[in-house]
Specification:
The chain is α+β, with helices and mostly antiparallel strands and 169 residues long. The chain has five helices and eight strands; from the N terminus they run βαβαβββββαααβ. A five-stranded mixed barrel has the order 1-2-4-5-6. Strands 7-8 form a two-stranded parallel sheet. It starts with a strand and ends with a strand.
Length: 169
């Protein structure tokens, strides 16, 4: 299985400091991505890319984008430099350049479920979670696994399961 990580991206960054700024945006959970390829650069090549990510690079051409509902990125490394994650979305420049962020505490942080101030009935909560998961295009088997786990206990278990799986507010 390919490892999934979370990355906060800067869109069409002009300079590396824009990538740093995007990575510090705590309002953004980050995007769940999979690494499709790793490119190892020298420090000079890395610095040239980081200082001008919008320039065309042959090693980015045709890569990135979404495949099977998963965002593909190119991992860019160099000695003594931060690892960058680039989604050129089929282009040959750094259309989206980002840094890895800590994995959120829930399984699917991009699925936001509103629980506060809503109907607290267990079936209502399950339905709300299921609709949010479908809206986020989670695979059917993941939704079935969630429902099975959530139903396997009492009301408190249901709430705990919701919080383990989704961003509950």
């Amino acid at each position: 299985m390919t490892e999934e990580i979370f990355v906060r991206f800067a869109r069409k960054p002009y300079r590396f400091d824009e990538v740093i700024s995007a990575a510090r945006d705590t309002d953004d959970l980050g995007s769940r991505v999979v690494i499709s390829e790793t490119i190892e650069l020298t420090t000079d090549e890395y610095d040239a890319f980081a200082n001008a990510p919008l320039r065309d690079r042959a090693w980015l051409a045709g890569k990135g984008g979404y495949f099977d509902l998963k965002r593909q990125v190119v991992e860019v490394t160099a000695p003594e430099r931060q690892t960058l994650y680039v989604d050129p979305s089929g282009s040959s420049y750094g259309r989206y350049v980002g840094l890895r962020v800590p994995t959120p505490s829930c399984r699917y942080p991009e699925v936001r479920v509103y629980l506060s101030g809503r109907d607290g009935n267990a079936f209502s909560i399950l339905g709300r979670c299921q609709r949010a998961a479908r809206k986020a295009y989670l695979p059917d088997n993941a939704i079935k696994d969630f429902i099975s786990e959530a139903k396997n206990g009492d009301y408190n278990h249901l709430l705990a399961t919701c919080m383990r799986w989704f961003d509950c507010v």
